[in-house]
Design a protein that fits this description.
The structure holds 2 protein chains of 2 kinds.
Chain A: H1 6-25, H2 29-45, H3 49-66, H4 72-103, H5 118-136, H6 151-159, H7 161-164, H8 172-180, H9 189-222, H10 229-260, H11 278-281, H12 287-298, H13 308-326, H14 330-348, E1 351-353, E2 369-371, H15 373-392, H16 396-407, H17 414-419, H18 428-437, H19 442-462, H20 466-472, H21 477-493
Parallel strand pairs in A: 1-2
Chain B: H1 3-29, H2 49-59, E1 64-68, H3 77-84, E2 88-92, H4 98-110, E3 117-121, H5 142-145, H6 153-156, H7 159-175, H8 194-199, E4 202-203, H9 217-233, E5 238-243, H10 248-256, H11 260-274, E6 280-284, H12 289-292, H13 306-317, E7 322-323, H14 328-346, H15 348-352, E8 357-358
Parallel strand pairs in B: 1-2, 1-3, 3-5, 4-8, 5-6
Antiparallel strand pairs in B: 6-7
Classes of the chains: A mainly alpha, B alpha/beta.
């Protein structure tokens, strides 16, 4: 069950909210916790109850290990076990296919169904083991200390439904300490208002923008070989926007839902397309993942304290890992490598954006060229776009072909065919009227619709982000009305009439 | 009340009001006829069989049903209404699988209407088709088929319904002169000629050995049972079954796949079972050389023009091509002989003129 579904909005969320606040109101704290864990497992179990077994088994093992985590070899063993679990479900077939290719033999791939959200809950468990180990050894900040964590608290931290499927990757103290604070369990109208606002903004980003842009992006990346230059560029922009609206929309919804429960989740997106460098972009995009890699990989590798070359290598390592985390494929690894190289370039001191200057660069103290903020944003967006070719293409051959299509100017008119995928209900009257009165203009109407969608998307990403809007407080009547319209529009978009291809008799 | 509480209250109230209004609009106009027949002078604009067939069968007034696959869609209801003095409705299902069509027929019988006549198009492929209804497995909107009011939310709050289907229904009812007798008809968007039918026929490359005629018997026996059960349970209804006039290209195709004898066997068995009922008349329009060998009547190997629908109806009225216990085997054996003629004689000029396309073979 996803957040953008009737059953979640109309049944699951109201019932669980009622139980949670009702039990907390009656001061049945423990029962409220258990109810929330059970509700989270039910939601997770709707994907598959086998997944629940895997999740719970791994939770119990990790919790048990955490009791003996002071010793380093137990920590290594625990981290290894978690990576093994992730590796088995996510990467086994990737390794099998590569070994097959390497040896020129054909090994059978395994029928493995990957549990939903495994990449997220495995990382959360690793974070818990490491933080507990550090706490046992006195290597943790005061505000991050949790002292002893009960099984219920641990299960709440891992299974908490707003974050289990797609994050954010919260640190143990960020969740557990908030559940411990009884003030958070009192129905809070500020949190509830913010929660509704974030949920509606996230839902409309995902449903009204992301899902429509996906129709273009999916088609474009499927027919890479037919793409002309301009269409390729617009498809790429559409995909970049889709990716952002989809993921950040989901995170907004998750944070909104969580706020309704009184729990603030860490922010995961902070207007990444306003970033002035790739380094800056990664401080704004999937922030909790970046933080995880910095905290648990980059810093233990020595971070930036072991000289310029080691720093660069460390950066590249964490970005390759980040790419591999996103997907088991060479395209993701390449994407991670490209990102890593771009971040290293940003750190060299050759070029930087004014307003985003560091105190010290790897090659020099001050950057050689300083460019204006707008130019920095534009260049950063373009570089990120190019990297996304690898992120989205089905394989490296397709990715290289996409780059060729962009690089060698062609204009075979594939734009019309791509734009026609934007055959959406909102367009129906316009398309029908055009068909009736100016049939030869129909292709133009589709292209204009596409451009309008891109234009609206750009306005959204250039405006205040969801958190900035929500933090403003004092919602006006106009804003309330806007949210009502966005919500109802998104709500009716959850169900649509499918086209049964007419001649599939 | 603080501003936060006031926002929450306004948001929830405003949303509920708008959602209530949307729900009421969809309920009143009801373009899929899930709740009622057309109100406010709206017409029964029918062009989405997967969404509308079930609702119309449950909620409309009629006493006769035209049942079949896409080849039955181009029938003009008024032809049947005038010829048999009845009020017809269409029960159409893609591919016309027996289990699906009988599901729709049973819905018609449960609607409270007295069904006097059923005109049932038997596609050969329906005889060996799935013996379970395929609505769910083919992605049909089950919220319209089941009787669970809770999942109606997918209909009441549906962007496609609100932004597309309702405007379409209103325009066709009040502005365009929509003809309700042409429900689900697709003929006006298609071209029927030799070029089109040959262009959409992809001939199997090789001629396979003719299969054992009993190969489909497992599914056939269940399909016979499903269909005869409906006939048996409704002795008050006159059933008119007919085998439609597929083109000679279809016969060429099943000859080459080796299925011809099996299909003819299926038809014989189904015909035999149906003829045991007094309230059944069966017609076979397959062996009609002037129709099936003239490719200008078709848009592909199966789908013929509305004129052929009308011709079949006229022949049904005049009692031509009727199958009886005495002649049904002879008629169907005649089809076998005629299909040999198609393969050995009638198709040859098209081969010589290189007008036949062949199936792509997977590497």
């Amino acid at each position: 069950m996803s957040f953008n579904s009737f059953s979640f909005i109309l049944i699951y969320l109201p019932i669980v909210l009622f139980l949670w606040h009702g039990l907390n109101h009656l001061k049945k704290w423990k029962l409220a916790d258990i109810t929330l864990i059970a509700a989270s497992l039910v939601l997770y179990g709707l994907f598959s109850y086998t997944f629940v077994l895997i999740l719970l088994s791994s939770c119990f093992i990790n919790f048990l290990l955490s009791k003996y985590i002071k010793r380093k070899h137990i920590l290594f063993f625990g981290v290894f076990l978690n990576l093994l679990l992730l590796g088995y479900f996510k990467y086994t077939n990737f390794f099998i296919s590569n070994i097959s290719a390497l040896l020129g033999k054909s090994f059978c791939e395994l029928q493995i169904i990957m549990p939903v959200g495994i990449s997220f809950f495995v990382f959360s468990q690793i974070a818990f083991l490491i933080d507990t180990h550090n706490e046992c050894n006195g290597n943790i900040k005061e505000e991050e200390k949790l002292s002893s964590v009960s099984l219920t608290e641990y299960l709440l931290y891992i299974t908490y439904f707003p974050k289990i499927v797609q994050g954010p990757i919260a640190l143990p103290y960020e969740i557990i300490s908030k559940f411990r604070n009884k003030n958070n369990r009192i129905l809070n109208s500020i949190y509830f208002r913010k929660g509704i606002e974030l949920f509606v903004i996230g839902l409309s980003k995902k449903v009204l923008l992301g899902d429509n842009l996906a129709k273009i992006a999916d088609y474009g990346f499927k027919y890479t070989y037919y793409m002309d230059t301009l269409t390729g560029a617009l498809v790429l922009v559409s995909y970049a926007l889709q990716l952002y609206f989809d993921f950040s929309g989901y995170c907004d919804m998750a944070e909104g839902v969580s706020l309704m429960f009184g729990i603030e989740l860490p922010i995961n997106f902070n207007s990444p397309y306003k970033a002035t460098s790739i380094r800056n972009l990664w401080q704004r995009w999937h922030m909790t993942l970046t933080r995880f890699f910095v905290r648990y990989v980059y810093i233990p590798l020595g971070g930036s304290h072991k000289g310029g070359i080691r720093t660069a290598i460390n950066v590249i390592i964490i970005f390759i890992l980040s790419g591999f985390w996103h997907g088991a494929g060479w395209t993701y690894i390449c994407w991670g490598l490209i990102m890593g190289i771009m971040v290293v370039f940003d750190n060299l001191g050759i070029m930087a954006t004014s307003g985003d200057l560091k105190k010290h660069y790897l090659l020099r103290d001050k950057p050689l060229f300083v460019i204006p903020v707008l130019a920095g944003r534009f260049l950063t967006f373009c570089m990120f776009l190019l990297s996304l070719i690898f992120f989205r293409s089905q394989n490296l051959t397709y990715a290289i072909q996409f780059i060729k299509q962009l690089g060698i100017f062609t204009w075979p008119g594939f734009m019309y065919k791509t734009a026609a995928n934007l055959d959406i209900s909102e367009n129906y009257l316009l398309i029908t009227a055009t068909n009736l009165f100016a049939k030869n203009m129909i292709n133009v109407v589709y292209v204009v619709s596409w451009l309008v969608l891109l234009f609206i998307s750009f306005i959204v990403i250039c405006s205040k982000n969801a958190h900035e809007i929500v933090e403003k407080g004092n919602p006006s009547r106009k804003f309330t009305l806007l949210l009502i319209i966005l919500f109802t529009w998104s709500f009716i978009s959850l169900s649509q009439v499918s086209t049964f291809i007419y001649f599939q008799f | 009340m603080n501003k936060n509480n006031s926002f929450i209250k306004n948001f929830i109230t405003g949303t509920l009001i708008i959602l209530f209004l949307i729900g009421i609009i969809v309920f009143l106009i009801d373009p899929f006829f899930h709740y009622h027949k057309p109100w406010f002078g709206l017409k029964a604009v029918l062009n989405d069989k997967e969404y509308q067939c079930i609702g119309t069968l449950r909620n409309f007034d009629y006493d006769a049903v035209i049942v079949g696959s896409s080849v039955a869609e181009n029938n003009d209801n008024s032809w049947y209404d005038n010829a048999f003095d009845c009020k017809t409705i269409k029960a159409i299902r893609s591919y016309g699988a027996t289990a699906d069509l009988c599901y729709l027929l049973n819905e018609a019988y449960s609607s409270g209407n007295t069904i006097r006549k059923v005109f049932y198009n038997i596609d050969p492929s329906s005889l060996n088709a799935s013996t379970e209804p395929t609505f769910k497995s083919t992605g049909c909107p089950m919220y319209l088929y089941d009787k669970n009011p809770l999942n109606d939310i997918q209909y009441l709050y549906n962007k496609g319904v609100l932004f597309e289907k309702i405007p379409y229904m209103i325009v066709n009812s009040y502005i365009v002169d929509y003809d309700e007798n042409l429900s689900y008809s697709w003929a006006k968007w298609k071209t029927f000629n030799k070029e089109s039918s040959l262009g959409l026929y992809f001939r199997p490359r090789t001629v396979k050995k003719m299969m054992n005629e009993n190969i489909y018997d497992d599914k056939l026996s269940v399909n016979i049972e499903i269909l005869t059960d409906v006939v048996k349970m409704h002795p008050e209804t006159d059933f008119y079954f007919f085998y439609p006039a597929y083109s000679m290209l279809w016969w060429d195709g099943i000859y080459r796949t080796g299925e011809r004898d099996a299909f003819i066997h299926c038809e014989k068995e189904m015909t035999k079972a149906l003829l045991s009922f007094d309230n059944v008349k069966i017609f076979c329009f397959q062996n009609e050389p002037e129709v099936i060998s003239n490719l200008d009547n078709y848009m592909d190997s199966i789908h013929f023009s509305p004129e052929i629908n009308k011709l079949m109806l006229d022949q049904m009225i005049s009692g031509e091509y009727r199958m009886t216990n005495e002649n049904y085997e002879e008629i169907l054996d005649g089809m076998k002989i005629y299909s040999d003629k198609i393969v050995n004689e009638l198709i040859i000029p098209y081969e010589k003129d290189n007008l036949i396309q062949y199936e792509q073979v997977d590497e």
